Each structure stands twice: as C-alpha cells, then as structure tokens.
Amino acid sequence: MLTKYRQRLERILERLIWEQIASLLIRNKRLRAFLFISLGFAFNILFILYNLLVGQFSSSLGFYDLALYYGILAAMRVLVYCF
C-alpha cells in the first residue's frame, strides 16, 4: 500500500520537474539555444563515431554519410536560429 503511494508521488514529482524544465526552455532563449547547440554537438559526435565504426567497412556509403552529416548540421543551425 505504501509503495503504491510512493510510486504515485514519484510520478507526480517527475512530471513537475519536466514541466519546470519545459517552462524554463519556453521562457529562456539562451538556455534553449544552449540546449540545441549541445544536441547538435552530440549528434555530430555520434555521427563521427558511426563513421569510424561503419565507414571502414562500407566505403560506398561515404557520400550519403557526408550528406546526412551536413543535413544534421544545417537542421541544428536552423533550430538554433529559429528559437
């Protein structure tokens, strides 16, 4: 019985925390820009790691990987400038 209420309280607190983060992102443009720039760096690092692991074995995908890389960069820049 007590664990049921504890789980419910944890869910409510988690929802409140996410709502506070969302409201901060809506109100604070610098924080929002920092978040999108950080996401852009994370995508770039993941893409570089992907190229290091997969690119060695399949050289025919190099052009498409490069196009995807610049597409992700462009999308992240657009998101940062829009917000």
Explained architecture:
The chain has 83 residues and is an all-alpha fold. It has helices at residues 2-27, 29-54, 62-82. The longest helix is centred in the N-terminal third of the chain and has 26 residues, at 2-27. The model has no long low-confidence stretch (mean pLDDT 71).
Cα shape: elongated
Q: Calculate Rg over CA atoms.
A: 19 Å
List how many beta strands DSSP finds: 0
Termini gap: 46 Å
Overall mean pLDDT stands at 71
Quickly count the helices: 3
Number of domains: 1
Q: Largest sheet, if any?
A: none
Assembly status: single chain
Portion of residues within helices? over 70%
Topology pattern, helix = H, strand = E: HHH
Proportion in β-strands: under 5%
Uncertain runs are none
Coarse structural class: mainly alpha
Organism: Streptococcus downei MFe28
Transmembrane segments: 33-54, 66-82
Protein name: ABC transporter permease
Keywords: Membrane, Transmembrane, Transmembrane helix
Task: Describe, in short, the structure shown.
By secondary structure, the protein is mainly α. Helix content is 88%, strand content 0%. The mean pLDDT is 71.
How are the secondary structure elements laid out?
Layout: H1 2-27, H2 29-54, H3 62-82
Question: Any key phrases for this structure?
Answer:
0% strand; transmembrane; ABC transporter permease; 83 residues; membrane; mainly alpha; transmembrane helix
